[in-house]
Amino acid sequence: MDAPRANLPPLSLHVPEPKFRPGDEADFSDVDVPPAGSARRPDSAEPAANFHELAYTLIRVLDDAGQAVGPWNPRLDAQALRKMLRSMAMVRAFDERMFRAQRQGKTSFYMKSTGEEAIAVAATMALAADDMCFPSYRQQGILITRGYPLVTMMNQIYSNKGDPLQGRQLPIMYSAKDHGFFSISGNLATQYPQAVGWAMASAAKGDTRIAATWCGEGSTAEGDFHSALTFATVYRAPVILNVVNNQWAISSFSGFAGAEATTFAARAVGYGIAGLRVDGNDALAVYAATQWAAERARTNQGPTLIEHFTYRAEGHSTSDDPTAYRSAGEPNAWPLGDPVRRLKEHLIALGEWDEERHAAQDLELAEEVKRAQKEAEKNGILGHGMHQPFETMFEGVFEEMPWHLKEQSEQMIAERKAAGI
Amino acid sequence: MDAPRANLPPLSLHVPEPKFRPGDEADFSDVDVPPAGSARRPDSAEPAANFHELAYTLIRVLDDAGQAVGPWNPRLDAQALRKMLRSMAMVRAFDERMFRAQRQGKTSFYMKSTGEEAIAVAATMALAADDMCFPSYRQQGILITRGYPLVTMMNQIYSNKGDPLQGRQLPIMYSAKDHGFFSISGNLATQYPQAVGWAMASAAKGDTRIAATWCGEGSTAEGDFHSALTFATVYRAPVILNVVNNQWAISSFSGFAGAEATTFAARAVGYGIAGLRVDGNDALAVYAATQWAAERARTNQGPTLIEHFTYRAEGHSTSDDPTAYRSAGEPNAWPLGDPVRRLKEHLIALGEWDEERHAAQDLELAEEVKRAQKEAEKNGILGHGMHQPFETMFEGVFEEMPWHLKEQSEQMIAERKAAGI
Amino acid sequence: MSGDDEAGATVRMNMIQAINSAMDVMMARDPDVVVMGEDVGYFGGVFRATAGLQAKFGKTRVFDTPITEIGIIGVAIGMGAYGLRPVPEIQFADYIYPALDQLVSEAARLRYRSAADFTAPITVRSPYGGGIFGGQTHSQSPEGIFTHVSGIKTVIPSTPYDAKGLLISAIEDNDPVLFLEPKRIYNGPFDGHYDRPSKNWSAHPAGEVPEGHYRVELGKAATVRSGEALTILCYGTMVHVVSNTIEELGIDAEIIDLRTLVPLDIEAIETSVKKTGRCMIVHEATRTGGFGAELSALVQERCFYHLEAPIERVTGFDTPYPHSLEWAYFPGPVRITEALKKLLKD
Amino acid sequence: MSGDDEAGATVRMNMIQAINSAMDVMMARDPDVVVMGEDVGYFGGVFRATAGLQAKFGKTRVFDTPITEIGIIGVAIGMGAYGLRPVPEIQFADYIYPALDQLVSEAARLRYRSAADFTAPITVRSPYGGGIFGGQTHSQSPEGIFTHVSGIKTVIPSTPYDAKGLLISAIEDNDPVLFLEPKRIYNGPFDGHYDRPSKNWSAHPAGEVPEGHYRVELGKAATVRSGEALTILCYGTMVHVVSNTIEELGIDAEIIDLRTLVPLDIEAIETSVKKTGRCMIVHEATRTGGFGAELSALVQERCFYHLEAPIERVTGFDTPYPHSLEWAYFPGPVRITEALKKLLKD
Ligand SMILES: Cc1ncc(C[n+]2csc(CCOP(=O)(O)OP(=O)(O)O)c2C)c(N)n1
Ligand SMILES: Cc1ncc(C[n+]2csc(CCOP(=O)(O)OP(=O)(O)O)c2C)c(N)n1
Ligand SMILES: [Mg+2]
Ligand SMILES: [Mg+2]
User: How many domains in chain B?
Assistant: First the structure.
């Protein structure tokens, strides 16, 4: 290496650093939170170039007093709001229980979506029941909102005899085509171009169904994200591209995905795609943005990217302890609050809900989850013998089993027999 | 597949289509060409968010009368301008000759850069001699500007005994570390993250050298492009990211890379990176933008993406016949003209050049190229026996040759001997 | 072989035309078949394999794509999940690597991980192999990477007839298929002598191709020549190089064209090697960890007591494909001849 | 093995600590060594392999990266071209596929295609293999894909001592090295009995590791146990599973821990198999086209006349890694025992 030229200042490498580390007091007062209702709502047919500013603000509907305000207010009736609240609370109850099940050794792995319940639940409510979702691992809210049986989810988590995926997948990597829920992959962001492809197919066929996909802000760095946005803009695919910016990717803060320089909604601007930045803890804002994007997609105006600004309130997964790398005070200091609480307060402000009913519902949901768990455990828990028959391991690699898998299957059975197990 | 819901209009797939196909008359009157001198020139230390508009305009210096105007005028002295012109004309002469050599069967492949000479030549002149370039296959102008021997380039093209790459690479896939020219890859866009990595290393070491990289607009769709921009923005890497938008990627027009929805410079906006859109046929604009970006990089302000708007005046390569897919009239109808002619006219307008000198220079350059070709052909042409010794095939896979390559090498020699060849 | 009423009259085709015809036939029969890839639309592909298809079937069924192999395969998987039957082209097999994650972690795993809730019935076509002075990045034979991956089939034709019949079977197959096309023999069977005039398919019996629909079953090898002296396992371009060399040397070899690598026709291999007692494997891909290694392992596991000499592998060397030394690299007649001498010496 | 004055005192380390120590030692010796990857910085890696390094060497030498494996490898190559010696981590080997093009078309080819004008002296670390209930995408063993690629070395340690010495050699090597870490044995040697209490490295002689600098040479296998009855070729976790099974069965096997797959220690293999006349190959990766196929092919090519029985492969099955049936999938004691019976039966 040559010595630096004396007449020029040396270069230096910028390595991002989050504001708070363990031991620091978390202070989010510099986070810019625009007032609810302040973002304009363009017509869903407007060209994306006309509303770049929506990629740099926060679309918010629920104000601090629990009122729904401004042009993005979806004006849902109380029944819909209560269903939304119930689904979100159910996600939380489910997460709590399954997290505990993992800690009790009943399965190998679990991932909560605490603090992010609005993003999956409200979006799902704004979609048609037959629109196809390509989620990441943190949108269990889609299944719950669409009424997928809790017991079946748990069977998958336990990899037991009742698991529709035959114990083949890591817990929470659900697949439920009849509920419009694509098979979750362990590899980040691969679902993004797949969602775009599904949407392109739907468009090519003159169908009316659209696709929606989700990935974390950390996952936006993958090449798949870029391919997806490129295909989406080129063919004006009827797809909603959700980026869940919960500010953490395991131990890496969002600065390592580029958050220091701009928003994630701004990525859309780079492709000429409609981009919205939404308060992800405001269920009504999530609903409204999704509804707008769905309308845009369904009228052949093409894709929308929605950044949901939120906060991962708990660890990345059961394998993670977030206090090792971030301030323990962050979850509470986080200014956009708890999505369940905010929606609850809105319903209360509307006179359509009260604390007692909420507490009763929480109890009821906990009971429902517990009942489902008992039911699921009848089918077995991981590693306790009540798994799928061994031969199933060789099925489904291909539609028809080729000779080499048949041989391997027979070999396995023979070997186990010979060994007396 | 379900039938489309009757109450919703059917979706349809948008598949881009270029404006002209063979037989059509090319008419570019709808291409927006802002007047030279109209784009503002921010301070190179200004935050990228302050000049988004520069990603959507065209930075132009040379006006229709051959005058250099506006804030981006780099005010080069006549000597520098003449060197620039000479290098560009040399690239063209070299391309002509080597294209013909391929047609004469002297090698397997060649790629011209006709119409794009300014992009490589002017940028190189704006860089320091020891800045590292990570080019695509259409920046032979870098080597020529930096004085790399024509004979050596030709030796590479002929894969002959004098080829520094020992006949291992496809023609034009040069490598010349001592001229700050990274080994060209056949795989598109892979050089993009590599350039960012080199720049990051330079920054980490407190060096003063920066990196520059080039790829075609078609190649921006690759995942590597996105990884590169993500790393570049995160670590504020001292790198210049050039996108050569020559509007064609083999037979695919730029709409298949996303040009219908926005510019390629706009990609920068999506990452919060400085983005400039430049008249790529205006050598002074290319120089000025590169100089600005280099200053930005050298003062730790981070990366700049420059879209060079140009036109691929000839076929993709010797394997391609563009009249099969685009209007034969396009190259002439193209409104930004010929970069060599435009720079020549500027020098003439300055009183620093004239048509006679230009014609004489063209002759002289053609002679120089011809002389170099004769020299190179002494070392052999492809497929005519004067190649590297056979054993060299096994060298350089690893620093030290492992046993299996030694065995294979010995085997080859023994087999050829046994066969009497 | 054909076994199909709809095969129709036969005409002369080269391999490109046969491949084109397979897509043409399938697009006409099945509205869910779509063709996509870099330059495959208006232009009809850099090797012209998709010529005329866009004009015939329209832009929503035959379209150019952005240059992102991740996207091409990822989008095809999504289309497959919707219910289409995409036939994406990767322009050169050397450019399949950017898409590897979508192929391996997604296409190949989707049926298994979702217990058949979703599948990826895609056929990835890609020209592969050397012999055209394409340099390191237009010459590779990556089949050995994919044959190691559970959940994807790998098919390699050696004649126009097989190319069409196999491609139709691949498109109709409900699993992802990698369909590698030996570009050196697109226009004619290559005998391995690069310095002799090239032949075209017009004189070859398998250049006679039905115009309509027929299948060549996946997973079935073809015995190109019956013989007693040894068994030669090969596929793609090498089938012709081997056949010609054997003919020139007058050796009574049994030549097996594998046609499908996964699933493999193990029965054909086993039967032949047990008969001949000797086995040679020929492929163009690099040697270490190539598909020849698997073939060698299988043969010795299954025919151990029948083998009279070590199994010989004749393969590309373990180097990148060197541009100027292409013909020294290529496992051609010289190398096959020497290997035969060794294998037959006692 | 060490042959180095700077090895210093030995201490007890598990494999993670040994790997951490290798990077620590190399970073202290060579200012050009940098460590990068997802979560490797402040947090020290999801397996803690890089714990403490950022605090010690600073953020410009140890840093977290965006989640793009293309970028991690591409950037590392660029840094290598500058003159650094990057040690990128891919969080799980299952996530190496997105980076395959940068590894295969770039890192592995750079020296060759540029005639050594540029090189890629990078060491890609990645935890691999199953046995931790990681499901299909945290359990794979992709070494067979890379051993087929010319220009990249593949190294797999089986003990803390070797892990450190090999990693140091890999970092010092001027070619790209894929360094696969058998995550199942990070904390202790696994005997293959998942239902017995797990052991740690404290009782194992190779858990005794010098604190300083020493090398274990790349390309050299280790004979874990000398024997006469047969030769067993293995690496990574399988070394311990095999050793334990052999001990339990009381078989006089010669066990060879390959340690480096490319370049392979062919001499050690050949000498051993010629002595024992029988050979078994054990790996966790899927069978078809796995590295075992290459080993089998090489052994039969070189030891044909010494072999008394067919070479046996004991490998992962040709399916994705099934979450709940992990222990039926894993090539553990049961399967090794049955294969031994077959191999030794006459
Ligand atoms: C291709 C790939 N690389 C790395 C990983 C390991 N990994 C799993 S989750 C994760 C973090 C993802 O963060 P983000 O996208 O922000 O989603 P979040 O967990 O916050 O919902 C990483 C690095 C992976 N699963 N796949
Ligand atoms: C990974 C990869 N995919 C595909 C190709 C084949 N290919 C070579 S050049 C080219 C077009 C590139 O167009 P563009 O980026 O616009 O550059 P230009 O040729 O116009 O300079 C294609 C598709 C390749 N070389 N590498
Ligand atoms: Mg996140
Ligand atoms: Mg182009």
Answer: 2
pTM of the model: 0.98
For the cut 50, the answer to whether the pLDDT of residue B2 exceeds it is no
User: Which SS3 state, helix, strand or coil, does residue D315 take?
Assistant: strand
Domain coverage including residue A351: 15-377
Q: What is the mean pLDDT of residues A368-385?
A: 95
Please report the sign of the dihedral spanned by the C-alpha atoms of residue B251, residue B256, residue B257, residue B258.
positive
**Chains in contact with chain D (at least 3 beta-carbon pairs closer than 8 A):** A, B, C
CA of residue D85 to ligand 1 center, whole Å: 26
The residues of C annotated as belonging to the active site are 138
Contact (CB<8Å) C82/B394: no
The number of the ligand 2 atom at minimal distance from the alpha carbon of B111 is 19
Residue bearing the CA closest to ligand 2, atom 12: B249
Q: What residues form DSSP beta bridges with D233? A: D256, D281
In a domain, A371, yes or no: yes
Residues with CB under 5 A from ligand 4 (ion): B 216-218, 246, 249
Give the best residue of A20, A191, A220, A250 to mutate against chain D (max D CB count within 10 A). A250
Q: Is residue B266 part of a domain?
A: yes
B418 and B355 share one domain: no
What pLDDT score does B385 carry? 79
Confidence (pLDDT) at C70 = 98
Determine, yes or no, domain membership for B254. Answer: yes
SS3 D36: strand
Q: Report which bound ligand comes closest to the CA of B245.
A: 4
Domains and CATH numbers, chain C: 10-210 (3.40.50.970), 222-344 (3.40.50.920)
Same domain, B372 and B394: no
ipTM over 0.90 threshold: yes
Q: Select the residue of C147, C301, C320 nearest D150 (Cβ to Cβ).
A: C320
pLDDT by residue (tens digit) across B318-373?
999 999 999 999 999 999 999 999 999 999 999 999 999 999 999 999 999 999 99
pLDDT tens digits along C121-170: 999 999 999 999 999 999 999 999 999 999 999 999 999 999 999 999 99
Q: Is D221 helix (H, G, I), strand (E, B) or coil?
A: coil
Residues B157 and B267 in one domain: yes
Q: Is the pLDDT at A421 greater than 90, yes or no? A: no
Q: Spell out the residues 6+ positions from residue C240 whose beta carbon is closer than 8 angstroms to its own.
A: C158, C185, C189, C190, C191, C192
> What average pLDDT score do residues A185-214 get?
98
Q: Which of C30, C325, C342 to mutate to test the interface with B (most CBs of B within 10 A)?
A: C325
CATH number of the domain bearing residue A108:
3.40.50.970
The answer to whether the beta carbons of residues C167 and C19 sit under 8 Å apart is yes
Does B148 share its domain with B87? yes
Q: Which of A185, A231, A398 sits opposite C106 (nearest CB)?
A: A185
Average pLDDT over residues D270-281: 98
Average pLDDT over residues A301-326: 97
A325 is catalytic: yes
Closest among C244, C234, C269 to C191, alpha carbons compared: C244
Test D112 with B397 for CB contact under 8 angstroms: yes
In a domain, B2, yes or no: no
Q: Which atom of ligand 1 is nearest to the CA of A245?
A: 16
Are C187 and C15 a contacting pair, CB within 8 Å? yes
Question: Which residues, 6 or more positions from D35, have their beta carbon under 8 angstroms from its beta carbon?
Answer: D23, D27, D50, D53, D57, D61, D62, D63, D86, D87, D88, D89
CB contact under 8 A, D66 and B199: no
- Whether residue A2 is predicted with pLDDT greater than 80 in this model: the reply is no
